[in-house]
From TrEMBL:
Residues 57-85 are annotated as: Disordered. It comes from marine sediment metagenome. This is Uncharacterized protein.
Length: 85
């Protein structure tokens, strides 16, 4: 099922982004400071990318669920005399 593998691939990319965002936050904390303007810009860019991927992941999962529903429906129809081949 291609939608699952795509969703998993996108989750891995989000995990990498999360690690980068965490590192950025830890660095600022360790240096006892707030995020710099440059850090904030980078954080916001990564956050937007992360959120966009979440929407795409949900779309892929929805399609995968619908595909399963359609496959189940097709299996119920197989062998019924009132259903054309």
């Amino acid at each position: 099922m291609p939608f699952i593998s795509k969703a998993q691939e996108l989750r891995k990319k989000n995990a990498e982004l999360h690690a980068q965002m965490t590192a950025l936050s830890i660095k600022a904390h360790d240096e006892d400071r707030e995020l710099t303007a440059e850090d904030r810009e980078q954080w916001d860019r990564m956050d937007a990318e992360y959120e966009g991927r979440l929407r795409t992941i949900k779309d892929h999962e929805k399609l995968e669920e619908r595909e399963r529903d359609m496959n189940a429906l097709d299996k119920r129809r197989i062998g019924r005399e009132d259903t054309p081949p």
